[in-house]
Write a sequence for this structure.
């Protein structure tokens, strides 16, 4: 059966410099194309499509049926997807606030027990590697464990054009192979996790957190 993936784009930046703005769109498009070529259904999630309120109100705090329609629709897409590609620029050596803010709107019960792939980029020479380190922790806490291989793209504006294809002069085969290793791991884990979820409900013995922060606590010391 066909696998479904969401590619989260972690940039909502419209201002320049630095040029170009939303370099991440190229990176996300490259991921959509390469993952789509495997036969999977791949959907781009663009933070600009979601008008998030200035006061932070996550999807999971609304009574059923009262969340904004766009958030509800994205919650449904997250719940039915088999895996996720998280595309982030490096801002001040950290993952993109736009990506973190969007993901913070959703409970881990929607996204857990499925794999993710970390894809970072920058306009400079480090390719977002420092952002990637923190992303492992963030995504592990959400329960969409990142696969071991990662994609880092230094000087992404020189590597990819606006459609997400390699710029002239780039080694297309090398870049395809580099993307392919991480995306193949994602596919493998997504298929394995889907089979596993079908065989045994993962939340039967590890139920989703509900209301109280203390649900995460170790037992208190005896009185
Ligand atoms: C607020 C801000 C912080 C940045 N911090 C870093 C950084 O820590 N390391 C880096 O390599 N590039 C950094 N950059 C440059 C980005 O790599 C570059 O602007 C890239 O295009 C950002 O992706 P975007 O255009 O998709 O938003 C920063 C850019 C901005 C706007």
């Amino acid at each position: 059966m066909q696998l479904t993936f969401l590619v989260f784009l972690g940039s909502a930046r419209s201002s320049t410099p630095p040029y170009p703005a939303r370099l991440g769109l190229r990176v996300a498009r490259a991921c959509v194309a390469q993952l789509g070529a495997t036969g999977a259904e791949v959907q781009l999630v663009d933070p600009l499509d979601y008008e998030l309120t200035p006061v932070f109100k996550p999807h999971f705090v609304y009574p059923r049926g009262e969340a904004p329609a766009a958030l509800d629709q994205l919650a449904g897409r997250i719940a039915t997807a088999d895996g996720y590609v998280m595309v982030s620029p490096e801002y001040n050596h950290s993952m993109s606030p736009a990506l973190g803010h969007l993901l913070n709107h959703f409970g881990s019960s929607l996204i857990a027990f499925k794999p993710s792939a970390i894809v970072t980029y920058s306009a400079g020479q480090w390719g977002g590697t420092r952002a990637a380190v923190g992303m492992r922790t963030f995504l592990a806490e959400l329960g969409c464990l990142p696969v071991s291989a990662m994609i880092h793209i230094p000087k992404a504006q020189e590597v990819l054009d606006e459609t997400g294809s390699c710029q002239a002069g780039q080694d297309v085969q090398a870049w395809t192979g580099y993307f392919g290793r991480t995306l193949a791991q994602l596919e493998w884990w997504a298929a394995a996790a889907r089979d596993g979820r079908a065989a045994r409900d993962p939340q039967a013995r590890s139920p989703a957190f509900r209301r109280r922060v203390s649900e995460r606590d170790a037992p208190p010391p005896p009185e």
About this structure: The beta strands are 4-9, 41-45, 83-89, 116-121, 151-153. The chain has a mean pLDDT of 95. Residues 11, 13, 18, 21-24, 89-93, 122-124, 126 surround flavin mononucleotide (CB under 6 Å).
